[in-house]
Write a structure and sequence with these properties.
It is a single chain. This protein starts with 14 loop residues before the first strand and ends with a helix. By secondary structure, it is an alpha/beta fold. The strands form 3 sheets. A 6-stranded antiparallel β-barrel has the order 8-9-12-11-10-13. The chain contains 10 helices and 13 strands. It has 2 domains: 145 residues, HUPs (Rossmann fold, 3-Layer(aba) Sandwich), CATH 3.40.50; 120 residues, Riboflavin kinase-like (Elongation Factor Tu (Ef-tu), domain 3, Beta Barrel), CATH 2.40.30.30.
């Protein structure tokens, strides 16, 4: 396929939607559910056209710490909705300059071969994002395809969107972010060698390096979390910050103490799922005060899950 590098998805007249789908939140799920439903009605397959990262990275030639869902996680969540095929658009500078009319004709209609499109209210494509629902609706009779608009999902009178969820995560409000996502926010990472200071305090930690440099990290603070290791779920406390009581490196780190766990996880991949922010990161006068605070964090975490 010309515009989808190293990918194949040869379906006859599939139902198609497109977008970044970062987060695969409740609004996205409503749209994806309709795509799957319509594909079943027409006895055909469903396709999602998306991107590896946000097109703005190509346009501005820089990376942004914004990503809600890593590529593999996003694809898994999309396919869990019943979507048959996820195609990643080879979005480069040439693609960024493509006019909406060319995008529609060359990619959606010719390469994919669809006659049915389902889009969200915020769908944009083509140069300067000039392609949208109205653009597609105006041309549907010309090119002989159907177009269906899915209205946004609202919570507390606010439209659920990836940008809104990012705002809550940057504020550390993981509980409300989870409501908008329909699941707990998580970070996939690799366990790297840390300073081993936590072990000396009686609370050994794993130091996590996100697998994607674009991943959005929650605000600095201490969080109740769950840790997925090799398909098993454990309870933990995660500190995001600089550990000012013990370190002077001024490097922001993600460190998790897994309760009742003592296996070696170095160089292994884990997933940290955030439940709730407990408190801000603090500078304590001495180690004993820090140990006491961590002990309270652990007890609050046990109480949280016991409820």
């Amino acid at each position: 396929m010309k515009y989808f590098k190293d990918q194949k998805c040869d379906f006859a007249k599939p139902i198609v939607t497109m977008g970044t789908f970062d987060g695969v939140h409740l609004g996205h799920i409503k749209l994806l559910d309709r795509v799957v439903e319509k594909a079943k009605e027409k006895n055909t397959k469903s396709i999602v056209i998306t991107y590896y990262h946000h097109p703005l990275e190509t346009i501005h030639k820089k990376t942004f710490p914004y990503l809600l869902t890593e590529r593999d996680k996003k694809e898994k969540l999309i396919k869990n909705c019943g979507i048959d095929c996820v195609l990643y658009l080879n979005f480069n500078e040439k693609m960024a300059q493509m006019q909406p009319e060319d995008f529609l004709k060359k990619i959606i209609l010719t390469e994919i071969g669809t006659q049915d499109l389902v889009v969200g209210h915020d769908t944009h494509f083509g140069n300067s994002r000039e392609g949208n629902y109205q653009f597609l609706k105006d041309r549907s009779s010309i090119y002989n395809y159907s177009i269906e608009l899915i209205e946004p999902v609202k919570m507390n009178n606010h439209i659920i969107s990836s940008s809104l969820i990012r705002d809550y995560i940057r504020e550390g409000d993981m509980q409300y972010a989870s409501k908008l996502l329909g699941r707990n926010y998580s970070i996939h990472g690799s366990v790297r060698l840390g300073h081993r200071i936590g072990r000396k305090l009686g609370f050994p930690t794993i130091n996590i390096q996100p697998l994607d440099a674009n991943k959005l990290i929650p605000s600095i603070g201490v969080y109740i979390c769950e840790v997925l290791v090799n398909g098993k779920k454990f309870v933990g406390v995660t500190n995001i910050g600089y550990s000012p009581t013990l370190k002077t490196t001024c490097i922001k780190e993600i460190e998790t103490h897994i309760l009742d766990f003592d296996d070696d996880l170095y160089h292994k991949d884990v997933e940290i799922c955030f439940n709730k922010k407990l408190r801000e990161e603090m500078h304590f006068k001495n180690k004993n005060d820090l140990i006491e605070a961590i002990g309270k964090d652990v007890q609050q975490t046990r109480d949280f899950f016991n409820k």
